[in-house]
Amino acid sequence: MERFLDEHRDLKAEVYGKLEQHRDLLLPTLEGISKEEHRELVRKILRLLVAEGYRPMHFYQHDLQKYYYLGELMALVDLSLTVKMGVQYSLWGGSIVNLGSERHKKQYLEDVDQFRLPGAFAMTELQHGSNVAALQTEAVLDIAADEWVITTPDDGAIKWWIGNAAEDGQMATVFARLKVPSPDGSGAIDDHGVHAFLVPLRDAAGNTASGVEIRDCGYKVGLQGVDNGSLKFTGVRIPRDNLLDRFGTVERGGQYRSPFSASRRFAATLGELTGGRVGLCCSSLAVLKGAVTVAVRYGATRQQFGPPGAPEVAVLDYSSQQAKLMPLLASAYALHAATRFLVGQYAEAKRTKEEDLVTDVHSLSAGLKAYITNFTANALNVCRECCGGHGYAAVNRFGAWRSDHDIFQTFEGDNTVLLQQVAGLLLKKYQERFSGTPMQATYAYLRQMALDSLPANPLASHETSPRHLRDPAFLSRALKYRVARLLHTVAARLRKHTKRLGAFGAWNKCLGHLLALARAHIESITYARMSAALDTCSDGDCRKALKAMADVFALGCIQGDVLWRNDDYIAAEKVKAIVKLQEDLCRELRGIAVPLVDSFAIPDHILRSPIGQSSYTRDPYAEYLRSIGWTPS
Amino acid sequence: MERFLDEHRDLKAEVYGKLEQHRDLLLPTLEGISKEEHRELVRKILRLLVAEGYRPMHFYQHDLQKYYYLGELMALVDLSLTVKMGVQYSLWGGSIVNLGSERHKKQYLEDVDQFRLPGAFAMTELQHGSNVAALQTEAVLDIAADEWVITTPDDGAIKWWIGNAAEDGQMATVFARLKVPSPDGSGAIDDHGVHAFLVPLRDAAGNTASGVEIRDCGYKVGLQGVDNGSLKFTGVRIPRDNLLDRFGTVERGGQYRSPFSASRRFAATLGELTGGRVGLCCSSLAVLKGAVTVAVRYGATRQQFGPPGAPEVAVLDYSSQQAKLMPLLASAYALHAATRFLVGQYAEAKRTKEEDLVTDVHSLSAGLKAYITNFTANALNVCRECCGGHGYAAVNRFGAWRSDHDIFQTFEGDNTVLLQQVAGLLLKKYQERFSGTPMQATYAYLRQMALDSLPANPLASHETSPRHLRDPAFLSRALKYRVARLLHTVAARLRKHTKRLGAFGAWNKCLGHLLALARAHIESITYARMSAALDTCSDGDCRKALKAMADVFALGCIQGDVLWRNDDYIAAEKVKAIVKLQEDLCRELRGIAVPLVDSFAIPDHILRSPIGQSSYTRDPYAEYLRSIGWTPS
């Protein structure tokens, strides 16, 4: 099973082994230290990795799988560390790689890689996050000086939440409206929309650059180890060459040239954010695995109540606890398969630059990021609650995980906005369904569904045997049917409402429907990837366990959906049978839950949760008692 | 509307006014200070209240409504403060009031009230939380010395999470197994089960009492301002009189006497925990109101995207945002009505000691505590996410609220356990339904439902007009029907499974069903209280708003329930009509959402959330910019 889960076991053993020699960097809890101390701790670990020869920027450019795996590994060390690395490499370095020219890469990337040139990705403003096109910061070309003049026109345009900006960042990729004097000589200024510019923030000694003002964004809900800052520019001058000009450039004298239309260029620029989202899927997944590991081990240990006169039973033997935790365990495996698939597809898209694949991966990364981060956020609440009072001790880590992870739902694309992108692409594909355009595998079933008539098979819709309900053909088809039906109906509703409300109004009216569609699509893909992954497993017991988890995931998606109320595809008694089967499968999984979380193979010194140690079976509370000072450590 | 919400407006103005003169005690955020500093801050505010003449212990004994209202007011100042006060007055003082004799009250309560005698409530042990009957700490009578000898038999019985124990507590009410030498002279020891004993912990100078060991429980997920400690007793001797002996006493020489059977006595002892739960409902509700206030004001301010060429729209104008926030707003009002009802009933039960009412209130407090705290915990996640990145700034308070409030779901009764108590009582009432015993109002409808035949009215089940769907008769009946149906079916399932699995096994198998039943019952009561409250409102606009919120609450309960899939009571097209109506009502509420949260009347200096200030309409980001240091404060 470990082999099923991990493709880079050597890297894991190596990196975690090195950290084991630096126990002083792995504090039991980060509560009680200041944000400055936390930031310094993060810097130390990052510098240690660099000193040990790891080159994240190099991985990012040449071995994406290794890059993301390293991020996943660091997530359980400290989410602040993963995010700091994400800022430095995916965002700051990534903006140079993806938006810059060769000269930019040559000049900066080696220093970025070694953390000698910490940098920031200054996109978000106080008043604009999701709506990037409406950013207000300006870069106006001074033709005579051949320089850009960067200005924050008002306080609403102060760059906000910029990671690496409060303390470390020496430069930033600043997103600003590119403005040049109109070539018609009228004196007017042409606005070419949002572009990226390299702007120095401070020198290596920490002196702020002229015209730049920086404020620390202060304490956040979590991630105190990341130095988020806000930035205000007053006539900051940078060379013309500092425009990251892969998608649009300005010649000496002010001539603007781009191979793309404005909207295409904007899409291409934002498209490069995909990489960051892939990373968020990996680290969110790591947290999910960590939390489920602790909750399952504790649940198998902790005893409370029992039949009269008999010993107490483990809390994991309660069906209510199983109903909460087993779907989380199953989903961790399923989402693992989906995430590994995404990483592979993303690497492939970067390699081939094949346009359909790029579009597909962009949408998948948006959808999976929204789905996983929301799933993990909810799972953390459930896991903490399942560990009762002891789950509330800071040393057991649920609090830090939740506080740090929370913003994963918002940054690098607000989840509600991202899911709308997924729905938007599905609708586009749906409209193209008869046009003869070839479709990527991910969407091919839409065609099939559109060609199939929607009405259900009355025989199958009433069939309730576990054999049928666990048949991959049924599960797969039901999940796809759900997407097709949601798509079909929302397309009709949008058409109808657009007449009266216009496109924006109709979209707004159907938002709930659109979000449900996007989630259903991600669930369908996740199940497909889990099925594909389990088909590659040769060991009988592992396969059986993976199959049970795939079923729990898929049945959970079907069971929880109110769609069937208005639909004959799955009749009422079939839903009832699914609920019962799900209970049975959760009870079955409970029996193997501990080995299944052990397979995540998170070493104790990384998990650092006294109630979730791998040694819990011998003496469940030993480590916890030590951590509170009742027994010597 | 403020009149509808607040019965103690004078107290609010007075207390919050006093705090306004002590701005140094109201920090913008408590991140970045140590737990010791936070505890000192909490002590200062508590001492200030006492110095200003507030007497919580006196309120607790003579004016319960005022007592709980004060707790609700303090919740938005700092949840650590509310919990510290809950420990000192509801738990420590409350244990003396409820479990002690007159001599105990005379000796201690005045000092407790003035916080001159901080104390603890030492029930939970490392290995036992919910299962109080299995506590292991022992109190053995030494007849010769006429003293109790308190001992922690092993590390699993260390008292854990004890509030006020780590730093302040001078005494504790310790729950321990009362053991006396058997009167038969055999030398055997009789175990009379768990009783409460007054045990000194440290003197006023802070020196720990002989035989007592104390460890700080360390950082928690939140509530750092409460000094939770763990306690180990080694042969600690206390006078025989220190047994809190209202329900069972031991005479000189060791004779045990109690007017109750062991199980009745245990129930009576635990029954006294009710008061703490009432307090948790009040403070959880306060947090819900605070969070909804911030999210609604910010949502009405924040603009993002919009129709092409038109100005951006407020995010609260998106239907997805309305679907998230309007039900929270409606529920805050409905749960307010239910909580005020609970406080009134509890006061009545304490006054009359009428047995049925006591039982009823015990169950209602358990159910409402579980329901509200779970609801608020989820609401905090939603509200933070609705406020996007700015919701993640510590100053805007969602993080602290969530971290502090989280444990409300676990302490003073784990929610999953409490809901089972509610379900248990419902089943008991159900079984008594033909026995002729008079029923409390809360349960009376069960009789009616049992007498009504369950099958639905085929005409009504298909009726979809908004007029019908918003008819209180329909809503009330549907919510009650749901309880009756869940009760009826779970009773049948329990009967069936008990044959094969025994009572414990059958209960375990039906847990999901039982929890759904308990929640449905609480929702039905909540709607009934909201309806009753709105009937007392004379102002037309207020009434209309309250009616809309009552409808959103009730329709939300009905809409989200999968029950109707297997039930003819509400047909598929009716569910669909409810979904549509709910969207319409949420859009309607959006129009008055701001005045509705303004009615919660939380002063800015108490809410302390820069993005949720009452002045937001004038300059939405002004206070936030100040808080980060961009403009002078």
UniProtKB/TrEMBL annotation, chains A, B:
Residues 271-427 form the Acyl-CoA oxidase C-alpha1 domain. Its cofactor is FAD. InterPro entries: ACOX_C_alpha1, Acyl-CoA_Oxase/DH_mid-dom, Acyl-CoA_Oxase/DH_mid-dom_sf, Acyl-CoA_oxidase, Acyl-CoA_oxidase_C, AcylCo_DH-like_C, AcylCoA_DH/oxidase_NM_dom_sf. The keyword Flavoprotein applies. GO terms for molecular function: acyl-CoA oxidase activity; FAD binding; fatty acid binding. GO terms for biological process: fatty acid beta-oxidation using acyl-CoA oxidase; lipid homeostasis. Its main location: other. Residues 471-614 form the Acyl-CoA oxidase C-terminal domain. It is found in: Peroxisome. Residues 120-236 form the Acyl-CoA oxidase/dehydrogenase middle domain. Keywords: FAD, Fatty acid metabolism, Flavoprotein, Lipid metabolism, Oxidoreductase, Peroxisome. FAD binds at T124, G163. The keyword Oxidoreductase applies. It catalyses: a 2,3-saturated acyl-CoA + O2 = a (2E)-enoyl-CoA + H2O2. PANTHER family: ACYL-COENZYME A OXIDASE, ELECTRON TRANSPORT OXIDOREDUCTASE. This is Acyl-coenzyme A oxidase.
